[in-house]
Q: What sequence folds into this?
């Protein structure tokens, strides 16, 4: 289907980040599948209000339903200077204070999908408001389709990765951004897998997917985006950040109209009550600012903290899901949607816990029992700082859940030794490091700068490809006995593996939702997740290295084998490494 693929490539390229904000009123960009983005168009809307009201051509009585229809059509005709056949009545009703009519633009008796108008009349039968997105197309395509509904259905199913839901398709015109109007087959497509539910507009002459309506409404979150480290880099308002393949019912519970920071993957609350959540009874907009000069417990900070932690934990759920931390792989969800694994184990995210200070922890019980993430306040600064606003801390903690569940088959018993527990700390830092990349560059990475109020962060060294800046090697472990310090050795190795893979294969900006690319950052996370399930219970560094190399053999036929050996060996974890004695040896064929 050359037309289709060419089209999707074009719409992907046509969207540039820079001009996005000026297009919010007329455009919407949607990720509709792995690596596929569709930008939909809605003609500009004019809106006029008239206070006490304006007379209109059919000023008889707009209150009966026939009256509204006639009055609205004649008003639109005269106000916009269009003929009667261009206006088709859709619906209307009379309320306590006004009567409302909704019309559509039409051509040859076929309505337009995205060129509509609404007229309101007051009790004195005067027009009080008029909104319109009617268009004056420079060309209109023929009103007899030349592409069949069944062909259009195939195109829509393939593009949206779902199935036609048997709702009768309709024929409607669609006003395009280039000033033309095209005839479209309108077909509903749903996906059981992702929960997606779209209306697809397929050009009935060219077969092009022109637009979609997305019926799944989700939510808006003001958060520290996952690619930023902390609140110091600023909050942003994100719309629909969830990945519906990983979270089919989105992040919020669907059982009630009252939405809270409680959903299928996580419950985020403050204090000792799981009911102490942030609640939105009217809209799905979780929009709270943060006052950095105020204490974490002073409004609006608790709400912002709950929303950000909820967002980060769900985001980690979603992208690790894409790479294999799924229901049968022992993940954390209330409802497993019949996909295997043990259910009823969301992550309970407790913020501002008074059980401690200057730390955070994650308790991972076996699959089927909820994980417990506890975040404490940090007291190095005045006011104190809440680690819920430092994404790397939240990601680090969530990674404990991922690694404890995936190593050894969901028993949560297999990262208990000092060496394995040390790597447990390292994986968390390494995954936080991964989430914050915004280009192929691999700058030094410093954990925990915000909570401690110090650019040096909470570890002994930055993670770095420069051995002067981070001299840690496999043999360094011999002098270390604390899991976080041991973890730094592992995280720095993984930082260097990441750099080597990105150097070899490039970098993908869509790695969190598209695990199918060949870029180095995608390869790195696949090997990271795959190796967890491959490695033995309570692995050593040597065994964990072997699991990465085996993961590469399984997934990529071993194409990265020498890159992995060279990088691990550069840190002393070469072929002869044992008992914290370095080896820089690599296989002879590397
Ligand atoms: C709502 O959620 C429940 C359980 O979480 C699920 O069984 C049900 O299918 C969901 N309903 C919809 C419409 O998504
Ligand atoms: C609930 O959260 C608020 C902050 O929104 C906090 O002040 C209060 O102490 C919490 N209640 C309990 C019972 O922990
Ligand atoms: C490594 O870091 C040291 C110390 O900051 C610096 O002098 C050196 O130029 C760096 N090497 C490279 C290759 O960047
Ligand atoms: Ca589970
Ligand atoms: Zn930790």
A:
């Amino acid at each position: 289907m050359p037309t289709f693929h060419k089209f999707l490539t074009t719409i992907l390229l046509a969207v540039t980040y820079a001009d996005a904000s000026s297009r919010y009123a007329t455009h919407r960009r949607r990720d509709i599948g792995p690596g596929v983005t569709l930008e939909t168009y809605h003609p500009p809307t004019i809106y006029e209000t008239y206070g006490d009201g304006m007379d209109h051509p059919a000023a008889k009585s707009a209150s009966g339903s026939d009256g509204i229809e006639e009055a609205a059509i004649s008003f639109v005709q005269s106000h916009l200077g269009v003929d009667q056949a261009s206006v088709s009545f859709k619906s209307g009703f009379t309320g306590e204070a006004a009567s409302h009519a909704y019309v559509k633009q039409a051509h040859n008796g076929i309505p337009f999908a995205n060129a509509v108008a609404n007229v309101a009349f007051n009790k004195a039968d005067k027009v009080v408001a008029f909104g319109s997105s009617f268009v004056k197309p420079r060309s209109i395509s023929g009103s007899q389709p030349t592409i069949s509904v069944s062909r259009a259905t195939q195109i829509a199913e393939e593009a949206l990765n779902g199935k036609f839901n048997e709702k009768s398709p309709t024929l409607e015109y669609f006003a395009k951004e280039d000033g033309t109007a095209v005839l479209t087959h309108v077909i509903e497509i749903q996906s059981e897998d992702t929960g997606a539910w779209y209306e697809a507009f397929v050009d009935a002459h060219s077969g092009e997917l022109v637009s979609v309506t997305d019926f799944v409404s989700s939510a808006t979150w003001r958060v520290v985006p996952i690619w930023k480290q902390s609140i110091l880099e600023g909050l942003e308002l994100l719309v629909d950040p969830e990945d519906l393949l990983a979270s089919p019912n989105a992040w919020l519970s669907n059982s009630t109209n009252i939405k809270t920071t409680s959903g299928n993957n996580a419950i985020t609350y403050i204090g000792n009550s799981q009911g102490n959540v942030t609640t939105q009874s009217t809209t799905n907009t979780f929009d709270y600012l943060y006052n950095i000069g105020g204490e974490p417990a002073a409004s609006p900070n608790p709400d912002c903290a709950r929303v950000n932690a909820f967002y980060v934990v769900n985001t980690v759920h979603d992208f690790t899901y894409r790479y294999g931390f799924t229901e049968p792989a022992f993940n954390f969800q209330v409802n497993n949607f019949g996909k295997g694994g043990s259910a009823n184990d969301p992550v309970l995210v407790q913020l501002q816990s008074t059980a401690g200070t200057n730390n955070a922890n994650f308790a991972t019980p076996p699959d089927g029992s909820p994980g417990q993430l506890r975040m404490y306040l940090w007291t190095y600064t005045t006011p104190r700082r809440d680690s819920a606003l430092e994404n790397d801390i939240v990601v680090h903690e969530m990674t404990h859940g991922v690694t404890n569940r995936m190593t050894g088959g969901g028993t949560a018993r297999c990262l208990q030794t000092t060496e394995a527990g040390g790597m447990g700390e390292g994986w968390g830092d390494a995954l936080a490091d991964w989430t914050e990349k915004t280009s192929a560059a691999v700058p030094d990475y410093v954990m925990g700068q915000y909570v401690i109020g110090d650019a040096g962060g909470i570890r002994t060294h930055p993670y770095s490809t420069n051995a002067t800046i981070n001299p840690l090697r496999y043999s360094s472990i011999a002098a270390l006995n604390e899991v976080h310090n041991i973890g730094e050795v592992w995280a720095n190795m993984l930082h260097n593996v990441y750099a080597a893979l990105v150097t070899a294969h490039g970098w993908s900006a869509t790695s969190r939702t598209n695990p199918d690319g060949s870029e180095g950052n995608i390869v790195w996370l696949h090997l990271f997740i795959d190796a967890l399930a491959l490695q033995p219970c309570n692995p050593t560094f040597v065994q964990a290295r072997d699991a990465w190399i085996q993961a590469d053999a399984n997934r990529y036929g071993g194409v990265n084998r020498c890159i992995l050996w060279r990088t691990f060996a550069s840190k002393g974890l070469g072929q002869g490494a044992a008992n914290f004695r370095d080896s820089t040896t690599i296989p002879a064929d590397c």
Q: What stands out?
A: The longest helix spans residues 483-505.
